[in-house]
Amino acid sequence: MFNTRSLLRAVHDIASGPLENAHAMPPGMYLSDDILDLAIERIFSADWVCVGRTADIPNAGDYLTFTVGNQPVAVIRQKDGHLKAVSNVCLHRMMILLKGHGNVRRVVCPYHAWTYDLDGRLIGAPHMDKTARFSARAMCLPELNLEVWEGWIYVTLNPDPVSISEQLKPLQDVVAKYAMADYVPVVTEDS
């Protein structure tokens, strides 16, 4: 339906031209499955994505969920206070584990009640004790790279990323006067 090469050429021409000639991208950029696949591969699977603020999940068990590319992810405040990003998909039947944001003591799959500790370790799998060679201890939700910069939570699917703190280092002096790490939420609005 859309010619990917033509769309990319049009965007290149817009981006490389003078600012006064800039205009919106061609509609096909928002409708093309090929462009979406490229964005997932080259942006969402390769780079850092800001998913929220540390102040939004201040207590142990607080979590927020989102999708990076096509990967459901949860960031959960651990018992020791640090944050952890894990795949938000049950290891058993690939069910989404958590929705939106909230607080949990444990993560329980709504399908077969597989239960995970806040760190993603499997701690309960009903009826699996009758299955030969099954070891709950060996199972854990896949962890993703997570960094906090100035109170902003960043996650990446890239297994070997360049640190977001290093990438944003040139902005450090610019934002220092705003004390962003100390921001607290006043209003939250879900669309």
Task: Please outline what is shown here.
With 191 residues, this protein is an alpha+beta fold. It has helices at 4-16, 28-31, 33-44, 164-167, 172-175, and strands at residues 49-53, 62-68, 71-77, 83-87, 101-103, 107-108, 115-116, 122-124, 143-149, 152-156.
Question: What would you note in describing this structure?
Answer:
This protein is α+β, with helices and mostly antiparallel strands. The chain has 5 helices and 10 strands, in the order αααββββββββββαα. The protein has helices at residues 4-16, 28-31, 33-44, 164-167, 172-175, and strands spanning 49-53, 62-68, 71-77, 83-87, 101-103, 107-108, 115-116, 122-124, 143-149, 152-156. The protein has a 7-stranded antiparallel sheet, with no helix packed on it. The longest helix is centred in the first third of the chain and has 13 residues, at 4-16. The two termini are 30 Å apart. The model has no long low-confidence stretch (mean pLDDT 93).
Run of helices and strands: HHHEEEEEEEEEEHH
Strand order of the largest sheet: 1-10-9-4-3-2-5
- Helicity range of the residues? 10-25%
N- and C-termini, Cα separation: 30 Å
Q: Helix count, per DSSP?
A: 5
Indicate the structural class. Answer: alpha+beta
**Rg value:** 20 Å
Poorly predicted runs of 5 or more residues: none
Largest sheet: 7 strands, antiparallel
Estimated share of beta-strand residues: 15-25%
Shape verdict: globular
